[in-house]
Amino acid sequence: MELFILFSLLISLAATFSYINVRYIKLPSGISLMLMSTVAALGVILVGHFSTGFGDMVRQKLALIDFSEFLLGILLSFLLFAGSLHVQLPDLRKEAKSITVFAVFGTLISTFLVGFLVFLLLRISQQEIPLIYCLLFGALISPTDPIAVMGILKKANLSKSVETNIVGESLFNDGIGVVVFATLLQIATVGIEHFGAADIALLFVEEAIGGLLVGLIIGFLGYRFMKSIDHFQTEILISLAMVMGGYSLCHFIHVSGPLAMVVAGIMTGNRGKALAMSDVTRDYLGKFWEVTDEVLNAILFLLIGLEIIVVKFEVNFLFVGFATAMLLVVARFISLFLPAFSFGFKKELSTKTLTIMTWGGLRGGISIALALSLPPSPFKDVIVSITFIVVLFSILVQGLTIDKLIKRILPGPIRA
Predict the structure, then answer these.
(1) Burial class (CB within 10 angstroms; exposed 0-12, middle 13-18, buried 19+) of 235
(2) Which residues contact 165 (CB under 8 A, 6 or more apart)?
(3) 212-266: per-residue pLDDT in tens?
(4) Positive or negative CA dihedral for 291, 295, 296, 300?
(5) DSSP notation for 56-86
(6) Matching Pfam families, A to Z (predicted)?
(7) Which of 197-206, 389-398, 400-409 shows the lowest per-residue confidence on average (mean pLDDT)?
(8) Contacts of 310 (CB under 8 A, 6+ apart)
(9) How far apart (Å, rounded) are the C-alpha atoms in residues 2 and 19?
(10) Which of 34, 78, 198, 340 could disulfide-link 301, Cβ–Cβ 3.0 to 4.6 Å?
């Protein structure tokens, strides 16, 4: 009952903040919710200085929700599936080469580049952290968050090509990033001497390729079941079973659940909608997942801001966090430019487009969840603190200015 009351309060807060935003502020919903919840969290911390009991009570209640488990184990499956439903397969095929290269090679380049840069930055600031933990930070912070990205881009008037690249890359590099993170975490746990190159390659292939294959199977089965009936209530239940049952299966057989949900969502949103659903089902299923996406997004962004109350936030890492946020922007551009140049599609994606993809590559709840999922160590609090600062900078600064950047560097006909 206590957990139900907590979620009731979260939904009430989300509804209140959303109303204030729609009525007065008129920012993208994710940014406004995170901004207001961050202000509320800072207010709670301030009041807690004068009333220790109040601050402890709020922390105790919020601690009932394991943010990492809640996002990675529950929310992520719904949000990735819902986001993938809107991706058009013809557009995805057209940009398949660049999306694949950015998602795989771009994520790997960014992981190691960010890891080494943060390692040097921490040494300069006299904070000694083993390189493997800096690489873990690179892995958890490099993937752009599809939830944050899609929420911000809803109001951006981008060309179809640019939008498909940003959204497609963010959906797939999320899954790749989680796989890279899991691989590096295993190396950090058992030691590199017990985990050779063949083991790394095998784990990566099992997680990534396995996730894609399971996603295809889930999508195909869902398509066949929906095609054989015409009953929108049951077909919505089937889509829920695909998400919940499919994600649980991925966890059980140790393959990438995020990649599986992206593939299953794309299949359902394209082949399923076109060939397996009536107009009525298509309308109801689309609206059901749109509402689900909005509600869960609201809870997620609200929790990101409120998590500041719960985590052991180290104020002395503010400088390192902001410096890392700046380094991450540079690393993001390099991790896009090098693959684009090396694989021969730099002419198709101009420097201006890569700049938009760089600034529009937002980090969000997934990075925080991965940081919080790290096992206890002397370095966890440092990583969590820096991750929070980078995510706050990404969503509040980059998210608020991406639309202005698009209007500034791209002419109207290219945007529209």
Answers:
(1) buried
(2) 95, 98, 99, 102, 349, 353, 357
(3) 999 999 999 999 999 999 999 999 999 999 999 999 999 999 899 999 999 999 9
(4) positive
(5) HHHHHHHTTS-HHHHIIIIIHHHHHHHHHTT
(6) Na_H_Exchanger (PF00999)
(7) 197-206
(8) 59, 62, 63, 67
(9) 26
(10) 34
Residue 293 CA neighbour count, 13 Å, CB half: 21
Q: Is the dihedral of CA 345, 337, 85, 287 positive or negative?
A: negative
pLDDT of residue 243: 97
The C-alpha angle 148, 38, 371, rounded to 5 degrees, equals: 60
Judge whether residue 413 has pLDDT over 50.
no
**3-class secondary structure per residue, 338-404:** HHHHHCCCCCCCCHHHHHHHHHCCCCCHHHHHHHHCCCCCCCHHHHHHHHHHHHHHHHHHHHHHHHH
Q: Cα(282)–Cα(314) distance, rounded to whole angstroms?
A: 48
Is residue 6's pLDDT more than 70? yes
User: 312: how many CB neighbours lie within 10 A of its CB?
Assistant: 9
Q: Which amino acid is at 312?
A: K
| Interval 394-408 mean pLDDT | 86
Structural domains in the chain, CATH included, are: 66-415 (1.20.1530.20)
> Any idea what the Cα angle at residue 254 is, between residues 248 and 259, rounded to 5°?
75
pLDDT for the residue 335: 95
Two structure tokens written together for 234:
């049951």
Residue carrying the six token digits 């080469």: 97
Q: Can you give the pTM of this predicted structure? A: 0.89
Nearest to 229 by CA among 277, 263, 268: 277
Mean pLDDT of 124-153: 84
315: its two tokens: 């104020």
Please state, in angstroms and rounded to a whole number, the distance separating the CA atoms of residues 316 and 297. Answer: 31
CA distances to 113, 162, 179, 226, 246 from 238, in Å: 42, 33, 27, 7, 11
The 8-class DSSP code of residue 278 comes to -
Res. 412 pLDDT band, cuts 50 70 90: low
